[in-house]
Amino acid sequence: MSEAASFGAAHIARGIGRMSTHVLAKGQGSYLTTDTGKHLLDLTSGIGVVNLGHCHPRITAAAQEQVGTLVHAQVNIGFSLQQIELIKKVLRHVPDRSLDSVLFWNSGSEAVEASVKLARAATGRQNIIVMQGSYHGRTMGTMAMTKSKTIYSTGFAPLMPGVFVTPFPYYSQLGVAPNTPTDKMVSLCLHQLRLLLAQQTAPSDTAAIILEPVLGEGGYVPAPKAFLEGLRSVCDQHNILLIADEVQSGYGRTGKMWAIEHSGVRPDILISAKGLANGFPLSMVVSRKELMDKQGPGSMGGTYAGNAVSCAAANAVIDTFEQDKILDNVAARSKQMFDFLHQLQQSGSKAGKYIQDIRGLGLMVGLQFSQDQGASSSSLPAASSDSTAALYLFEVDGTKHAQLAPQVVQECLKRDMLLLSTSTQDVIRFIPPLTITEEELAQACKIFKESLEAVVSRL
């Protein structure tokens, strides 16, 4: 551990969890460089933030120019030219033309809370329905809406009231076999939603249903088209608003600008953050003007909302998508990754036998390990008390098993690659930059294979 890392470990709040003790000093494209000169291949993109890679030259230049022009154009005082230009560009790419009114904020959590305020103001109702396994943030409001892990809200009650949970069509959460037909899971989940509206939160009390079109922290599970269509139908029937939380899945991550475009379903409210400004703090809520106009002037706003430098960076992000054919690369690299993972799964190797499910869209890819082949915890080395690679345990038929994903992450780290696990399930998530090259992705696949083989060799 470097001197800088030791200082950080001693003085940074313990509530911040991290996967490594590296001090990240420089980034370029798909790589990060530490303060000790180590080069790391980054398959996390800062958890889906630097979608166009670290320090993209066009985005860097736009931000640098704006810093020398105007840094802070406070949104409650006036407009900024960068903000107006960004709205024009955003409206060219919305998933439905009915979405014509924009609010800029700073973080994903703030945008989610803003969407709740909007839904309540627009409908005059208070309750919000969220999905089992969802992640919407860690602020006081969004903690109540996040249902992926209890760690995010443990010890912080009482949480925001008026939040109800409905199942998401994901086999691990429904307790059914991995090969359960999708239409059966969708039917079950829509039935439970209708029961929820009949038994727990009346439609007349329900402002909105919010979901991630690809379940993020909950396991990287795309919402089936039929499920999204069913949600839209329920919302239309009861005048409930449908909110698409695309904080992680938006801005090209799934091969389209917005993940919900794969279904053709119209959201009433769309949320974006993370990749919106490629690392600069910026989030966004887009909805219909008729809904936005139900909020009185002064009810929304914030000191740094729609910061001019962040907006300049976001303008350059859209320019890059339009000029550099980013989505073409996403399609090519997505095929490359899925082909590799399926070949590994079907190889007959010991490593391949532990791969239960491969899923995702574009370069938002989840790999779930098989729980029924997991080694018992007694056969695995215990993690040291100061280790960031704690062996998460799950239980099958009374036997405790160690999750493979956190161990694979640490093996990748030993081989100078950053990768993340996710959810209470045993899942690896691949989030490389959308600009990653064929050669870089091939190297990443090689490191992943070696790391998985190293882990399963100990079982």
Features:
15 helices; Aspartate Aminotransferase, domain 1; Aspartate Aminotransferase, domain 2; 459 residues; alpha/beta; 2 domains; seven-stranded mixed sheet; 18% strand; 36% helix; identical protein binding; single chain; globular; pyridoxal phosphate; four-stranded mixed sheet
What's the gist of this structure?
36% of the residues lie in helices and 18% in strands. By secondary structure, the protein is an alpha/beta fold. A hairpin with a 4-residue loop joins strand 2 and strand 3 (39-42).
Please characterize this protein's 3D structure.
This is 4-aminobutyrate aminotransferase. Its cofactor is pyridoxal 5'-phosphate. InterPro entries: Aminotrans_3, Aminotrans_3_PPA_site, Class-III_PLP-dep_AT, PyrdxlP-dep_Trfase, PyrdxlP-dep_Trfase_major, PyrdxlP-dep_Trfase_small. Belongs to the class-III pyridoxal-phosphate-dependent aminotransferase family. The structure is a single chain. With 459 residues, this protein is of the alpha/beta class. The protein folds into two domains: 58-324, Type I PLP-dependent aspartate aminotransferase-like (Major domain) (Aspartate Aminotransferase, domain 2, 3-Layer(aba) Sandwich), CATH 3.40.640.10; 326-456, Aspartate Aminotransferase, domain 1 (Alpha-Beta Complex), CATH 3.90.1150. Helices cover 36% and strands 18% of the residues. The strands form five sheets. It has a seven-stranded mixed beta sheet, with helices on both faces. A four-stranded mixed beta sheet has the order 1-2-3-17. Helix 12 packs parallel to helix 15 and helix 14 crosses helix 15 (438-456).
